[in-house]
Design brief:
By secondary structure, the protein is an alpha/beta fold. It has a single domain (about 70-365), classed as Glycoside hydrolase/deacetylase (TIM Barrel, Alpha-Beta Barrel), CATH 3.20.20. The chain is built from 11 helices and 12 strands. It has helices at about 1-15, 80-90, 120-135, 140-150, 170-175, 180-185, 200-215, 235-255, 270-280, 335-365, 365-370, and strands spanning about 70-75, 100-105, 105-110, 120, 140, 160-165, 190, 215-220, 260, 285, 300, 325-330. Strands 2, 5, 6, 7, 8 and 12 form a 6-stranded parallel sheet that branches. It starts with a helix and ends with a helix.
Length: about 375
């Protein structure tokens, strides 16, 4: 009995310990929405490298020549180096080595021999013009010379400015200069003394007005009273009378304003140059035969020297364009070859230094001034 009870209890316990069958649970198909894993961009800190700095090359020195008197030295006047190089190398302007020769005529006479050192016989005058033409020179006006000296405006490579000083009747110009105008297009400058009609023959004014209308006689100022030069010591009032008086007379009789003062007697001063500039004069001419002219290149004297006697030194004025040199008609023919040679040598010197100057311009100037035309 006890045995049967024990067996029954054992069966019950074993049943309780038997594993429970696992029921099958239906599964659902689940579509998972996957969020892509974030991507990370690596930021690289760039260390700036030094930009190469181009240093402009050293510019060549000013052209020098042994064909000038050693006491006469070339002076420059263009302050802006970049503008100088731009105008120098622009293909629209005069080529380097372009040279201008200024010649003054005080009196041309018919006689073969003259007693006055300021006079040139007519025969020698025509020989001078012929020599200029044979060496390739062409005559220009004062305005053309001003454009060349100031901005390197184009003029003939060998140019000459013929300047007749003082007062001459129309017949003087007709006899000696008209044929060169009509046949070759050569103008002539008249450095005109603007004294009143009461002081001179009134017919002189009438004749000059007619020549001015024709256009081949280029009138420029030569003072009013004229006989007292505008050198150191004269009053501002006198200087103003000579310079403004010329302007007033020109506007009245020639309907123009002179742009050049041909200094009477070759005399000038710091004050006369300053007043001339204030009144709008662009050029001034002395009687000192220092040499030819080129763009940004004017031979001047800096001190009084035994070689030139009483010539006033122009260098201390610090305005080369207002104290330009002129050759004398009586010996200008002897200097034509030297003038041509100066131009050729200057052209060669410029050619040797062209690459350096253009490199300087590209580095130091091009950004502000643009490419050279």
């Amino acid at each position: 009995m006890h045995i049967l009870g024990s067996l029954s209890l054992l069966v019950i316990n074993l049943a309780a310990c038997a594993p429970v069958p696992v029921q099958s649970v239906p599964t659902e198909t689940v579509t998972a929405s996957l969020t892509p894993a974030p991507t990370f961009t690596t930021t690289t800190t760039l260390v700036p490298t030094s930009t190469p700095i181009h240093t402009p090359p050293a510019l060549p020195g000013l052209f020098q020549t042994l064909l000038l008197n050693p006491v006469d030295t070339p002076h420059t006047y263009v302050q802006d180096t970049c503008m100088y190089l731009r105008n120098k190398w622009s293909s629209a302007n005069s080529t380097p080595g372009t040279v201008a020769m200024v010649i003054m005529f005080h009196s041309i006479v018919a006689d073969d021999v003259t007693p006055n050192a300021n006079q040139i016989p007519g025969k020698e005058f025509h020989e001078l013009i012929g020599a200029l033409m044979n060496n390739g020179f062409e005559a220009i006006t004062t305005a053309q010379l001003a454009g060349f000296l100031e901005n390197n405006a184009r003029i003939p490579p060998h140019s000459v400015l013929l300047v007749v000083d003082d007062r001459h009747h129309a017949q003087y110009f007709n006899t000696y200069f008209r044929s060169y105008w009509e046949e070759d297009g050569w103008p002539v400058v008249n450095a005109w003394i603007s004294a009143s009609r009461d002081s001179y023959d009134a017919s002189l004014w009438t004749e000059q007005e007619a020549l001015n209308t024709e256009g081949w006689v280029d009138y420029q100022a030569h003072g009013v009273i004229h006989n007292t030069p505008m050198w150191p010591g004269v009053s501002d009032a006198y200087i103003m009378g000579e310079l403004q008086g010329s302007i007033d007379a020109f506007q009245l009789h020639f309907n123009k304003k002179p742009i050049a003062i041909i200094w009477p007697g070759g005399g000038f001063s710091q004050r006369s140059v300053e007043i001339a500039r204030q009144l709008g004069y662009q050029l001034g001419f002395t009687t000192n035969a220092r040499g030819p002219l080129m763009f940004n290149w004017v031979p001047l004297g800096d001190t009084v020297t035994p070689e030139h006697g009483d010539w006033q030194p122009e260098g201390p004025i610090n305005d080369p364009l207002m104290v330009l040199p002129r050759y004398w008609d009586t010996d200008a023919i002897l200097h034509i070859g030297d003038v041509v040679k100066v131009g050729l040598d200057a052209a060669n010197y410029a050619g040797q230094n062209k690459a350096t100057e253009l490199e300087y311009y590209d580095i130091a100037c091009k950004t502000q001034y643009g490419p050279i035309p």
